[in-house]
Amino acid sequence: MEVTGAESIDWPLKLQCCGNPLWGKNDALSLDLSVKKLEDAEKSEAHALCVACTYCQIQFDTVQKEHIAGKKSKVSMPSVLYPQLLGLAMGMDSGVLEMDMNGIKPDNVLNFVSQPD
Fold first, then answer.
1. pLDDT digits (tens, 9 = 90+) for 59-94
2. Which residues have C-beta within 8 Å of that of residue 19, sequence separation ≥ 6?
3. CA 33, CA 106: separation in Å to the nearest integer?
4. Any idea what DSSP says for residue 6?
5. Residue 54: which of 98, 2, 107 has the closest Cα?
6. Residue 65: partners with Cβ closer than 8 Å, 6 or more residues away
7. What percent of the chain has pLDDT over 90?
8. Distance between CA 24 and CA 30 in Å, rounded?
9. How large is the greatest C-alpha to C-alpha distance in the chain, in angstroms?
């Protein structure tokens, strides 16, 4: 993370499962795990989640909308894949990185990466 200019913060549930492996089998538990992780990230003053796993991306991006719509959580936190963050730091256009495909727009992520001159 630091190589991109973004700051990686420590927070208690950082390494806990996002809940995606349970999606379709036990949706309530899957959402509960995600909500707890999102709320914990927010308490730790995270501005966005950066994930390496595409399933985490699906959980925190697509499924998070259900959390908000279902009023299970008030947290709305963008999630980006690490290759997207790295690409931004390398000066790649967000369109090439398909940032517009992210369900919760990660507009503030651009503020946290170092871009080449």
1. 888 777 776 666 666 778 888 999 999 998 898 988
2. 29, 30, 31, 32, 33, 34, 37, 59
3. 22
4. P
5. 98
6. 103, 104
7. 37
8. 9
9. 48
pLDDT tens column, 94-103? 889 998 888 8
One-letter amino acid of 3: V
The 3-state DSSP class for residue 20 equals: helix
pTM attached to this predicted model: 0.81
Taking CA atoms, 73 is separated from 6, 66, 98, in Å, by 26, 9, 27
CA 29 to chain centre: 19
Structure tokens of 30? 């899957």
Query: Residue 39 is encoded by which pair of tokens?
Result: 């709320």
